[in-house]
């Protein structure tokens, strides 16, 4: 099983002293991060499109086997809600491709106030560039349905399995890869997973990813560097399934 486990973002001030050495300049944080993990989910791209210079620098300071997952602009997902987005998608994708072989999945996180609309999803999927990994995180419960999974599967688009308080999400892979996000089980973004929880998750993840090309997992519980410790633990647990 090929798996990539990391955190959602790396630029958190409260990681200083917990993960990053006290005297390490912020400009060196990604380089340090990449010594410990082989992937990161880039989440600032959700708020604004990073510059070409930023992409070039991220490519420069990470090793050849490093992988970036990119969270797609909220303009596409939250403001336009997948409608009339061709120009915006092209702009985002062209910038993302500057990462070359280090570019991993593109994550489209839909807003919780966007209910299921099969026709909108089908049209959007049909316009996406082929040869890339596209994955969707649905926050409105109406999307968590077998009919939606079949639509995604037709385009080899991924379904994002997520864990968060008070929400049940099915363990489904709709593409030749799986994608999972951990937002915190007890409190959103600010709770740590126990070793027992992660051991149980490792078994479920190994089962989910069986016969797939890759498994991508990101921890978004960034408070107090819980994401770092949880990612490290899960990596060691998944190593048994390689």
In order across it, which strands form the biggest sheet?
1-2-3-4-5-6-7-8
Portion in strands:
15-25%
Query: What count of domains describes the coordinates?
Result: 1
Poorly predicted ranges:
none
Biggest β-sheet strands, sense, barrel: 8 strands, parallel, barrel
**Number of beta-strand segments:** 8
Return the string of H and E elements: EHEHEHHEHEHEEHEH
The CATH homologous superfamily is called: Protein of unknown function UPF0759
What's the overall geometry? Answer: globular
- Measured on Cα atoms, how large is the radius of gyration? 17 Å
Which architecture does the CATH hierarchy give at level 2? Alpha-Beta Barrel
CATH class descriptor: Alpha Beta
Structural class: alpha/beta
Number of helices: 8
Distance between the termini: 5 Å
Helical residue percent?
A: 25-40%
Protein described:
The protein is an alpha/beta fold. The chain has one domain (3-241): TIM Barrel, CATH 3.20.20. 33% of the residues lie in helices and 18% in strands. β5, α6 and β6 form a beta-alpha-beta unit. The longest helix has 15 residues, at 195-209. The chain is globular and about 50 Å long. The mean pLDDT is 96.
Topology of helices and strands:
Elements: E1 3-8, H1 29-33, E2 39-42, H2 52-61, E3 67-71, H3 74-79, H4 86-96, E4 103-109, H5 118-127, E5 134-137, H6 146-154, E6 158-163, E7 177-182, H7 195-209, E8 214-219, H8 226-238
Parallel strand pairs: 1-2, 1-8, 2-3, 3-4, 4-5, 5-6, 6-7, 7-8
Helix pairs in contact: 7-8
